[in-house]
């Protein structure tokens, strides 16, 4: 079946969006005076990076100008989770650059202002406040992490600023009472359900332990894994903890070893997860290791090197090297045009899709875009066709556009392999 290019401005999409949000898409009135806005540079850094543009007239909603719309991103660009924020930024910026080359959205360019929160909640709050109150952004996009989002979302909610496509599957972000949050990805509950289903059905494993980062992110993953086990009348055979932004994982790993697990679900970012796996093998543990998409798959494989073989990672976006998938092909072309030296990966693909989601919302609002219209059309039931990857919004499933979970494994060469079921040889040693 033929698919329309979502980057082409389609009159019917605009009409549908505005009819669904008529009250929010009313006439705009130009604000008195002039404001100077900021735009993100190509590469994120700990401080905002932006170009000073010629003053133009701002409209009623902050961040909306005659010639551009300004988004903001507070994410980890440095520290143990730095590659996650960088990956999301590359993908979002590639999507924005792609639409800008085509003339923008209804004649407006999309720009991005960044702040580095190093994956710390306190910085996420101050960054979010600064982006809203000083940079006057239209919407926030591509935040990284559960603890940072838990702290930043109340700021966005209080200001009525859209909080789009955070890089986290935490359950609290899927509360339908939230007015500003729009999720793109599947939840951690869905990812951990897939893990437990595959372990029990494909491999017959029931002795499953959980090791997690001791904060809201880790607890979200732990709760999802525990619920999936309970549905099968099981419980974790052991639990281990470690602190955020550290690789001091030995104590938690020794707690996990006491349960003699056949599989360990690890909830964390790439550096500590790699440390858990490396130390486990150092002390003679050889269970099946599984982790969620937040880990940062490319970064994890790089950290593990030759020791990564057999590690399972659930994903929430398609395989980033599968160019037979039209949305992947579009992503790779956009990324190559924007940042030709950047290697394609799962995180930047998610960022690209997040950018495309924001673009779809803006397109449906028409020329008189407002935050209210933007949020309204991103909460309606009209599907979004992203080069054949169909997104359907579900308030019941948690204010999110996708329920997809994909299974991948690090192969012998360090590259990821797509899976439908877990292979028996992932069990490794004969004593399992």
Explained architecture:
- This protein has twelve helices and 16 strands.
- The chain is of the alpha/beta class and 432 residues long.
- The chain folds into two domains: 11-186 and 319-391, Rossmann fold; 188-315 and 406-427, Rossmann fold (3-Layer(aba) Sandwich), CATH 3.40.50.
- The strands form four sheets. It has a seven-stranded mixed sheet with strand order 9-8-10-11-12-15-16, sandwiched between helices. It has a five-stranded parallel sheet with strand order 4-3-5-6-7, sandwiched between helices. A two-stranded antiparallel sheet has the order 1-2.
- The protein is globular, with a radius of gyration of 22 Å.
Spell out the blueprint of helices and strands.
Layout: H1 11-20, E1 38-40, E2 50-52, E3 68-75, H2 82-101, E4 109-116, H3 121-133, E5 139-141, H4 146-159, E6 163-164, E7 181-182, H5 188-202, E8 208-213, H6 216-230, E9 239-242, H7 250-257, E10 263-267, H8 270-282, E11 288-291, H9 297-304, E12 312-315, H10 326-338, H11 346-365, H12 371-377, E13 384-386, E14 389-391, E15 406-410, E16 416-419
The succession of helices and strands, N to C, reads HEEEHEHEHEEHEHEHEHEHEHHHEEEE
The CA-CA distance between the termini, in Å, is 48 Å
User: Unreliable runs, pLDDT <50, ≥5 residues?
Assistant: 1-58
Number of strands: 16
Rg, nearest Å? 22 Å
Q: Based on the structure given, which CATH architecture of the largest domain is correct?
A: 3-Layer(aba) Sandwich
Main sheet record: 7 strands, mixed
Name the strands of the widest sheet in spatial order.
Answer: 9-8-10-11-12-15-16
Note the overall shape. Answer: globular
CATH superfamily of the largest domain, please? Response regulator
- Mean pLDDT figure: 86
The helix/strand class is alpha/beta
Number of domains: 2
CATH topology of the largest domain: Rossmann fold
How many DSSP helices?
12
Helical amount: 25-40%
Strand content: 15-25%
Highest-level CATH class of the largest domain: Alpha Beta
């Amino acid at each position: 079946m033929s698919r329309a290019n979502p980057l082409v401005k389609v009159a019917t999409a605009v009409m549908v969006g505005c009819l669904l949000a008529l009250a929010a898409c009313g006439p705009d009135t130009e604000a008195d005076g002039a404001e100077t806005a900021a735009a993100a540079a190509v590469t994120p850094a700990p401080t905002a990076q932006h170009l000073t543009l010629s003053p133009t007239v701002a409209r009623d909603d902050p961040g909306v100008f005659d010639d551009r719309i300004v988004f903001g991103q507070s994410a980890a660009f440095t520290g143990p989770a730095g590659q996650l924020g960088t990956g999301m930024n590359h993908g979002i910026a590639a999507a924005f650059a792609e639409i800008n080359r085509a003339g923008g959205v209804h004649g407006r360019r999309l720009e991005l202002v960044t702040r580095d929160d190093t994956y710390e909640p306190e910085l996420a709050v101050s960054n979010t406040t600064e982006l809203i109150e000083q940079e006057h952004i239209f919407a926030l996009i591509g935040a990284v992490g559960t603890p940072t989002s838990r702290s930043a979302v109340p700021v966005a909610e209080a200001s009525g600023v859209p909080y789009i496509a955070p890089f986290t599957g935490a359950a609290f972000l899927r509360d339908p009472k939230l007015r500003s949050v729009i999720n793109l990805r599947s939840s951690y509950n869905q990812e951990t359900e897939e893990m437990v289903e595959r372990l029990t059905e494909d491999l017959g494993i029931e002795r499953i332990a959980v090791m997690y980062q001791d904060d809201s992110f880790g607890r979200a993953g732990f709760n999802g894994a525990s619920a999936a086990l309970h549905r099968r009348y099981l419980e974790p055979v052991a639990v281990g903890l470690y602190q955020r932004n550290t690789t001091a994982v030995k104590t938690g790993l020794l707690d996990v070893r006491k349960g003699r697990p056949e599989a360990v679900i690890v909830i964390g970012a790439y550096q500590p997860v790699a440390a858990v796996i490396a130390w486990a093998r150092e002390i003679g543990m050889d269970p099946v290791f599984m982790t969620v998409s937040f880990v940062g798959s490319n970064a994890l494989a790089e950290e593990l090197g030759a020791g990564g073989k057999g590690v399972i990672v659930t994903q929430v976006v398609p395989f980033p090297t599968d160019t037979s998938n039209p949305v992947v092909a579009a992503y790779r072309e956009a990324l190559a045009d924007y940042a030709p030296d950047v290697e394609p990966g799962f995180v930047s693909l998610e960022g690209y899709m997040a950018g495309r989601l924001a673009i779809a919302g803006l397109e449906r609002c028409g020329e008189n875009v407002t935050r209210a219209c933007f949020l309204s059309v991103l909460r309606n039931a009209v599907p979004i066709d992203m080069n054949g990857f169909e997104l359907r919004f579900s308030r019941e499933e948690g204010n999110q556009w996708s329920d997809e979970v994909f299974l991948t494994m690090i192969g012998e060469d360090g590259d990821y392999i797509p899976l439908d079921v877990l292979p028996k040889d992932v069990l490794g040693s004969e004593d399992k």
